[in-house]
Specification:
Blueprint: H1 4-10, H2 32-38, H3 54-68, H4 76-83, H5 87-93, H6 97-116, H7 127-141, H8 143-150, H9 155-176, E1 179-181, H10 184-207, H11 214-223, H12 229-232, E2 235-237
Antiparallel strand pairs: 1-2
Helix pairs in contact: 2-7, 3-4, 3-6, 3-8, 6-9, 7-11, 9-10
């Protein structure tokens, strides 16, 4: 049977560079989940450091403005002032505020992917709990940014990015587990389940004031996956019937 992930890549459902080689290092300790989450990738004190490149400053400034201003009312002049550059210079890097928004969201997801990747070794056991716990921990720390994104009338960008990174994680899980996905349709169905439920729960949690802790949310959410993402993908070890 032709490898389903290769088919998905050919159909632009899984980018070729979304598959990560297996980490040869040892597993990550349970305590390090909190340690990783505590590494703040949106540290406001260095948010607009002049050491950052102009393009990065523009993206960071855009998110900062988004916290205070509805997406449809954001003006490039305000972003330029926050970034320490000119409005004309912004257009050297981005053609529209939609493009800045998408690039900024992409950066945030790249940072999260780097944090979460070490925990994929637990895909058969408790991967879903620790992964989801990390998600909620990150969202809690930067709830103003995420809530602004969700209210930006551009929340489909968030969904699209979540789908993209779901595929990256699945690519690593499948290869590290030595399994083969049975069909592209299954890959997409499970992706819709995971992305849809994660997004809606995250949105409700943030909008309602995050009364539950990230640990409570992770326990509730991961329960539905039973800790076995691979089983949800309807896969079987290669070489078995």
């Amino acid at each position: 049977m032709e490898n389903v992930l290769s088919q998905a890549a050919a159909q632009d459902r899984l980018a070729p560079n979304d598959v990560v080689k297996k980490d040869q290092s040892s597993g990550v300790s349970r305590k390090s989940v909190e340690d990783v989450s505590n590494c703040d990738w949106l540290n406001m004190t260095t948010y607009h450091s002049q050491d950052m490149g102009v393009e990065d400053r523009i993206k960071a400034a855009f998110l900062d403005v988004l916290v205070k201003t509805p997406f449809t009312k954001i003006r490039m002049a305000e972003v330029a002032k926050m970034a320490g550059t000119s409005r004309q210079n912004i257009y050297r890097y981005f053609s529209s505020k939609e493009e800045i928004f998408r690039a900024a969201v992409d950066d945030l997801f790249d940072e999260f992917y780097d944090k979460a990747t070490p925990f994929l070794c637990d895909a058969e056991t408790d991967f879903s709990y620790f992964f989801i716990y990390l998600v909620y921990s990150e969202v809690q720390k930067h709830s103003d940014v995420f809530l602004s994104m969700m209210r930006a009338e551009a929340d489909e960008v968030l969904r699209q990015q979540m789908r993209r990174y779901y595929r990256r994680f699945v690519g690593k899980i499948v290869r590290d587990s030595n399994v083969e996905v049975k069909s592209i349709e299954t890959l997409d169905y499970v992706g819709d389940i995971i992305v849809g439920s994660t997004y809606e729960l995250m949105k409700r949690w943030v909008s309602s004031g995050m009364k539950e802790s990230p640990q409570q949310m992770a326990r509730t959410h991961s329960h539905f996956f039973n800790g076995k993402i691979v089983d949800l993908l309807s896969v079987a070890p290669q070489g078995t019937k």
